[in-house]
From TrEMBL:
TM helices/strands, residue ranges: 49-72, 93-113, 125-145, 152-169, 236-257, 591-608, 628-649, 693-712, 718-736, 806-828
Comp. bias intervals (Polar residues): 549-562
EC number(s) recorded for this UniProt protein: 7.6.2.2, 7.6.2.3
Protein's name in the database: Multidrug resistance-associated protein 4
Alphabetized Pfam families for the sequence: ABC_membrane, ABC_tran
Gene Ontology CC, one term: basolateral plasma membrane
Catalytic activity from the UniProt record: glycoursodeoxycholate(in) + glutathione(in) + ATP + H2O = glycoursodeoxycholate(out) + glutathione(out) + ADP + phosphate + H(+); urate(in) + ATP + H2O = urate(out) + ADP + phosphate + H(+); 3',5'-cyclic AMP(in) + ATP + H2O = 3',5'-cyclic AMP(out) + ADP + phosphate + H(+); tauroursodeoxycholate(in) + glutathione(in) + ATP + H2O = tauroursodeoxycholate(out) + glutathione(out) + ADP + phosphate + H(+)
Top EC class, one word: translocase
UniProt main location, coarse: membrane
Chain ranges of the ABC transmembrane type-1 domain: 19-292, 628-863
PANTHER family hit by this protein: ATP-BINDING CASSETTE SUB-FAMILY C, ATP-BINDING CASSETTE SUB-FAMILY C MEMBER 4
Length: 1188
């Protein structure tokens, strides 16, 4: 800042207002001297006095204009620096490497943007005072020496003593701020996880440990905020009492030395001290505080973030020739996700292979050559806030014909027809308004719409049911993309024979590679299921088709014409509410009452009155009286400052806790319709305002307001006529304040709401980082971020200019008041004493700065109260049923695990569509029930109803206890769930398994052993105490599912729900999960929602849902007798061989109903190595990568 600033020429409006401040008291002294030596006949002296009065008026007017011009320019410079920093932070976030992503979190980056960069706004305001302060002090000492001689040194000694004292306060304050910032970071990070994983937290009934976690961090944060607030209180009190102490010391010494006091001396001294006091005791320490705070604590995290590792991708320009011969070549490849972790967690192997091709995972050794444009569909579907169309086009131009064919191929046509605005429907943060299947299809459609040369598809079929999966495979992967090279990662082996080249990976190594027939001949037994299928087809006399030219099979024609690809309801995102109108007194009352009881508030007011009285009395210079009053002023001043800060910080703590508890208790629907950025904005920016800025501004306003009353009371008691211009001035002020507040309050509200999209865009970009980089869309996302930021800057700049507009007008009116007083004194010169003139003029000049500052601070308080208003709004959210009620179930409930649904209807919100209609079913004790249905049939809603994520209509009974009559925690803690999206939280492995610390280490290790994670956790540096990365990102999806399974084992509940838990895992992990469930939960009632029919075919009964109603419910082999049933059709969709195998398993289960038989794993054994024929096919084709 200094380096750049030194090159700029100083301009007229820069710091001349500080010069005027020093000159003005000189004019004042000369004018008072005229009255001291008053001679009615001396006209020359009168004209000279008029000159001095004009000087006072002009200097006041000049001060009003230049002061605000200076502040406008420095604030604008601060704003520009902040915007540039935000741009840099986002730009950096877009190119973070995998290692760097492990060293930071979304919460941390949000905090950089919401809190740390704001210091630049404040820094520039005070920066110049570092050199102006000492210069101005020197000039004032010179003038005071002329006026009262050596006595001025006594006063300056007090001032100079205050400077290092306040500088020390400033440094201490920034030390506390840095500690506060670390706790704030931690709190925002935890909040980010709580809001992201709220569904799982509610289903596990984990609200209390998370509340304890946030409250613990918040308590530490508040203790530091309280300490820094006390420092601020001391600083402010010393600032307000400094004037009294300095004058008292100066004049006591002056009188004791034997000098006689005159009016001109007193008032020149008072005015000169006032001029320098603000700079020396407020601006100079603030400058030191801001510079040290910014350099040490704000720049440091920003700098640390900007120096994190970047991913360097070489963008080699592609020739037309390269694009024609698109290919991916990999030789002798060795990669590590993180050299330190050394592949302790083999993150899903195939995803790692694609990451290497994309350049996300740098090769340690070996070669990866890519010829052609790449595009990519990620395994965990990513959508960003915007319309469905913008998600699919992703920056490309709309070509209606191609767009329609992509929608058809990705089975989205029917969904679009059911949406209110078709493909222009806005989807929320993280695609909260879409189902998992819809997100996966939008994710795939985005990749397909790009006209690329090579398509990398990371398991796009896992999140959809078999029927939709087959449609996507035939219409999209082998249909619309048939002429392009595709690398498809899949666990679904029925699609392998369509591949030109199959690559089999096991534990990070390639164990087999070749065409389908080569692998068959080589003895790898992963195709035994599919042999029969081909034999049957050949018997019918069909010619074998080449995999690349496959036409539509019978299945897909049927699937296309039926209502297969049924659509599902979508929630829409609500606009952020913005309260309008004035902020009522009740809001202030709520704010104060949150921090103190009525008694403390009364004490505060009486304390304030005492101080006010002592301020008025200070006019008399009797040394003893003056000593007593000065002492009282100091004591009451410090007491009031500390008590007020205590009350206001307590208010903030209470309001934060109320808001957080309200968020924890609100139903899940709230999180579906409110983006994560919007909720985090209240916890980061609004709570940040309440923590640091609002208490300071409030206390400042109250002190200034009381001083104004004191000044007017003293001045009017001496010269009653001074009230004549004060009253119209006051009316004009209040009118102007009302006029200004109507605009500025709403500008402030707009500024708050335009900030949310900046955070939302950042967090959604970080979630889809791989996709953004694969599509080379960094530039476009940077522009979108800048557009959000520009919108916010427009509101911020408006706020800045309206504030200055208001201040200039207020100061202008005050300078009119000073002019009237100055010339009024001269007009009434015959009846005025010198002391009265001095009092009137010095107080009117003091009033000038103070009055406009008081009115502006009152406006500022009202503007900041919008943050209180926004926080209070979130303390009144709709609440779900109580966690515990009077009616508690027996301790051993449920002992059997009998679940009954009786005429249940279910909707996620009171005005939302009914997603379950008249459901009546019974799940018997120890029964294993599979729940199937097409995408959007209401499978997950059935579980939501059971967990009461929204209140269902009708009766749900568990072991005869009506679930709606007991507390939510009593209900949810007695059921275990393995969710669809496995969620791990930042914290230790132990906390993730057992947040209530209810289990011994022995139990934890046993549970990990059951799910085969024991070895992996033992290899971690601190074993169970190892801190996990954000969202457990250092585990693969499969491993996260296994941790969720371990949680279920630990809970030992009679009811287990599995919600599509194996959709994203390989057959081997799936097999492990199924085996563990059969062994560990054989005494439990198990409800399994599944896309893969082979995972539930060995269930005792299968419940088939369709459009929210029960379509069929019986044993699997019974359902398979009904050829018109949905279940029979779903089984047929899997292919003939797989269907035959499923039918066989169902028959075996029916013969031995209590012994669950599981079909063998499709990939049963491997040769150590399969030789690759030299003439392997290099033409464009489909490469399937599978893992056992």
């Amino acid at each position: 800042l200094f380096r750049i600033g030194s090159k700029r020429r100083l301009e007229e409006d820069d710091m001349y207002n500080e010069v005027i401040k020093v000159i003005q008291p000189v004019f004042l002294g000369k004018l008072i001297q005229y009255f001291e030596r008053y001679d009615p006949d001396n006209m020359a002296a009168l004209y000279e006095a008029y000159g001095y009065a004009a000087g006072i008026s002009l200097s006041t007017l000049g001060l009003a204009l230049l002061h605000h011009l200076y502040f406008y320019h420095v604030q604008r410079a601060g704003m520009k620096i902040r915007i540039a920093m935000c741009h840099m932070i986002y730009k950096k976030a877009l190119c973070l490497s995998a290692t760097a992503m492990g060293q930071t979190t979304t919460g941390q980056i949000v905090n950089l943007l919401s809190n740390d960069v704001n210091k630049f706004d404040e820094l520039t305001i005070f920066l110049h005072f570092l050199w102006v302060g000492p210069l101005q002090a020197a000039a004032v000492i010179g003038l005071l020496w002329q006026e009262i001689g050596a006595s001025c040194l006594a006063g300056m000694a007090v001032l100079i003593f205050l400077m290092p004292l306040q500088t020390m306060f400033g440094k201490l304050f920034s030390k506390y701020r840095s500690k506060t910032a670390a706790f704030t970071d931690s709190r925002i990070r935890t909040m980010n996880e709580v809001v992201s994983g709220i569904r799982i937290i509610k289903m596990y009934a984990w609200e209390k440990p998370f509340a304890a976690l946030v409250n613990d961090v918040r308590r530490k944060e508040i203790s530091k905020i309280m300490s820094s607030s006390y420092l601020r209180g001391l600083n402010m009190a010393s600032f307000f009492t400094a004037n009294k102490i300095i004058l008292f010391v100066t004049f006591t010494v002056y009188v004791l030395v034997g000098n006689k006091i005159s009016a001109s001396r007193v008032f020149v001294t008072v005015s000169l001290y006032s001029a320098v006091r603000l700079t020396v005791t407020l601006f100079f320490p603030s400058a030191i505080e801001k510079v040290s705070e910014s350099c040490l604590w704000s720049f440091s995290p920003v700098q640390k973030f900007l120096l994190l590792d970047e991913l360097v991708k070489s963008h080699v320009p592609l020739t037309q020739e390269d694009r024609k011969e698109a290919s991916v070549e990999i030789e002798d490849l060795i990669c590590y996700w993180d050299k330190v972790m050394l592949l302790i967690f083999t993150a899903l192997l195939q995803s790692s292979l694609l990451s290497t091709v994309l350049g996300e995972l740098p090769a340690e050794k070996g070669v990866v050559k890519v010829k052609g444009e790449l595009t990519y569909a990620s395994q965990q579907p990513w959508v960003f806030p915007g319309t469905i169309r913008s998600n699919i086009l992703f920056g490309k131009e709309l070509q209606p014909q191609r767009y329609e064919s992509v929608l058809r191929a990705c089975a989205l046509k029917r969904d679009m027809e059911l949406l209110p605005d078709r493909d222009l429907t806005v989807i929320g943060d993280r695609g909260a308004t879409l189902s998992g299947g819809q997100k996966a299809r939008v994710n795939l459609a985005r990749a397909v719409y790009q006209d690329a040369d090579i398509y990398l598809l990371d398991d796009p079929l896992s999140a959809v049911d078999a029927e939709v999966g087959r449609h996507l495979f035939e219409q999209c992967i082998c249909g619309i993309l048939k002429d392009k090279p595709r690398i498809l990662v899949t666990h679904q082996l029925q699609y392998l024979k369509a591949a030109n080249q199959i690559l089999v990976l096991k534990e990070g190594h390639m164990v087999a590679r070749g065409t389908y027939s080569e692998l068959q001949r080589s003895g790898v037994d992963f195709t035994s299921l599919l042999k029969k299928d081909e034999e049957e087809e050949c018997e019918k006399g069909e010619a074998p088709r080449s995999p690349r030219s496959r036409t539509l099979s019978q299945n897909s024609i049927r699937s296309h014409s039926s209502s297969v690809l049924s659509a599902e309801p979508v929630h829409t995102i609500a606009e952020e509410t913005r309260i309008e109108g004035t902020i009522g007194l009740h809001m202030y009352w709520k704010y104060f009452r949150a921090g103190a009881n009525v008694l403390i508030l009364i004490l505060l007011v009486t304390n304030v009155d005492m101080l006010h009285v002592s301020t008025i009395g200070n006019g008399d210079l009797c040394i003893l009286c003056s000593s007593g009053l000065t002492g009282a002023t100091i004591i009451f001043g410090f007491m009031r400052g500390l008590i007020m800060f205590n009350v206001l910080v307590n208010s903030t703590e209470t309001l934060h806790n109320r808001m957080f508890n309200s968020i924890l208790r609100t139903p899940v629907h709230f999180f579906d319709v409110n983006p994560i950025g919007r909720i985090l904005n209240r916890f980061s920016k609004d709570i940040g305002q309440l923590d640091s800025l609002l208490p300071w501004t409030f206390v400042d306003f109250i002190q200034v307001f009381l001083q104004i009353i004191g000044v007017i009371a003293v001045a009017s008691s001496v010269i009653p006529w001074i009230l004549i211009p004060v009253i119209p001035l006051l009316i004009a002020f209040l009118f102007l304040r009302r006029y200004f507040l109507q605009t500025s309050r709403d500008v402030k509200r707009i500024e708050s709401t335009t900030r949310s999209p900046v955070f939302s865009h950042l967090s959604s970009s970080l979630q889809g980082l791989c996709t953004i980089r694969a599509f080379k869309a960094e530039e476009r996302f940077q522009q979108a971020f800048d557009a959000h930021q520009d919108l916010h800057s427009e509101a911020w700049f408006l706020f800045l200019t309206t504030s200055r507009w208001f201040a200039v007008r207020l100061d202008g009116m005050c300078s009119v008041f000073v002019t009237i007083t100055a010339f009024g004194c001269l007009l009434l010169k015959d009846s005025m004493k010198a002391g009265d003139v001095g009092l009137a003029l010095s107080y009117s000049v003091t009033l000038m700065g103070m009055f406009q500052w008081g009115v502006r601070q009152s406006a500022e308080v009202e503007n900041m109260m919008t943050s209180v208003e926004r926080v209070v709004e979130y303390t009144k959210l709709e609440s779900e049923a109580p966690w515990e009620t009077q009616k508690r179930p027996p301790p051993d409930w449920p002992s059997r695990g009998l679940v009954t649904f009786d005429k249940v209807n279910f909707s996620y919100s009171s005005d939302g569509p009914v997603v379950l209609k008249n459901i009546s079913a019974m799940f018997r004790p120890r029964e294993k029930v599979g729940i199937v249905g097409r995408t959007g049939a209401g499978k997950s809603s059935l579980i939501s109803a059971l967990f009461r994520l929204a209140e269902p209509e009708g009766k749900i009974l568990v072991d005869g206890v009506l679930t709606s009559e007991i507390g939510l925690h009593d209900l949810r803690q007695k059921m275990s769930i393995i969710p669809q999206d496995p969620m791990l939280f930042t914290g230790t492995m132990r906390k993730n398994l057992d947040p209530f610390s209810q289990h011994s280490d022995h139990d934890l290790w046993n549970a990990l052993k059951e799910v085969q994670l024991k070895a992996a956790v033992e290899d971690l540096p601190a074993k169970l105490e190892t801190e996990l990365a954000e969202s457990g990102s250092n585990f693969s999806v499969g491993q996260r599912q296994l941790v969720c399974l371990a949680r279920a084992i630990l809970r030992k509940n009679r009811i287990l729900i599995i919600d599509e838990a194996t959709a994203n895992v390989d057959p081997r992990t799936d097999e492990l999960i199924q085996k563990t469930i059969r062994d560990k939960f054989k005494e439990c009632t198990v409800l399994t929602i599944a896309h893969r029919i082979n995972t539930i075919i060995d269930s005792d009964r299968i419940l088939v849902l369709d459009a929210g109603r029960i379509h069929e419910y019986d044993a699997p082999h019974v359902l398979l007798q009904n050829q018109n049933g949905i279940f029979y059709k779903m089984v047929q969709q899997t292919g003939k061989a797989e269907a035959a195998s499923l039918l066989q398993t169902a028959k075996q289960v029916s013969r031995a109903p209590h012994i669950a038989v599981k079909s063998p794993c499709p990939i049963a054994k491997y040769l150590p190595h399969v030789p690759v024929p030299e003439s392997h096919n290099k033409s464009p084709g489909l490469c399937a990568v599978s893992q056992y």
